[in-house]
Amino acid sequence: MQPAILRTRRLVLSLPNRADTDAVFHACQDPDIQRFTTVPRPYVREHAEKFIDLVPRQWAEGVSTNWAIRHDGALAGMIGMHRLGATEGCGEIGYWMAAPFRGKGLLTEAATAVLDFAFAPQGLDLVRVEWRAVAGNVGSAAAARAVGFRYEGLLRQALVGPGGRDDGWVAGILRSDDRTPVPWPVLTP
To answer: Which DSSP symbol is given to 145?
Structure first.
């Protein structure tokens, strides 16, 4: 599959490149990114380099898509569709935002563009997208809820990362779903 560049009102989503190495490395020093994502711990510069080199291969193999979220030319975060091909017509969204870019609505803007691409017949042509996060990751949950995901439950000790096993929240969205946010029991109104 060929990489796609996605554009929104304030963002450009494109493949990360070697010029992003320092920004990825610095962002992944954030304790929240290390706690709530699967990035290695400790996160060294070589991890950023390997990740950036891996992205085009994953696109070509059709197993994962990753985009650098760029705001005013700066790398604000990463977002991608993963586990493509594991289940026909399904994928899993994943993302992180660098601390200075949180709370500005940039992640929901990026996630909306990625979902549009994921469901489009000329994009990934998915029927269902899942979201999973370590239980307690309220920021990630709020972003998923804002773009229309429906909370589906708690997966006990289901998420495995560098820190061990964690309980996970899971949500899903279907191509046919209305993307209007609905209440989630794990988020306060």
So the answer is: H
Range 131-163 burial, b when 16+ CB lie within 10 A, else e? bbbbbebeebbebbbbbbbebeeeeeeebebee
Place of tokens 């969205």: 173
For the stretch 140-154, pLDDT in tens is 999 999 999 999 999
pTM over 0.85: yes
Residue 25: CB atoms within 10 A of its CB come to 17
Bridge partners (DSSP) listed for residue 83: none
Residue type, 18: R
Maximum separation of any 2 CA atoms in the chain, in Å:
41
The backbone torsions φ and ψ at residue 30, rounded to the nearest 5 degrees and listed phi first, read -60, 125
Residue corresponding to tokens 């909370």? 151
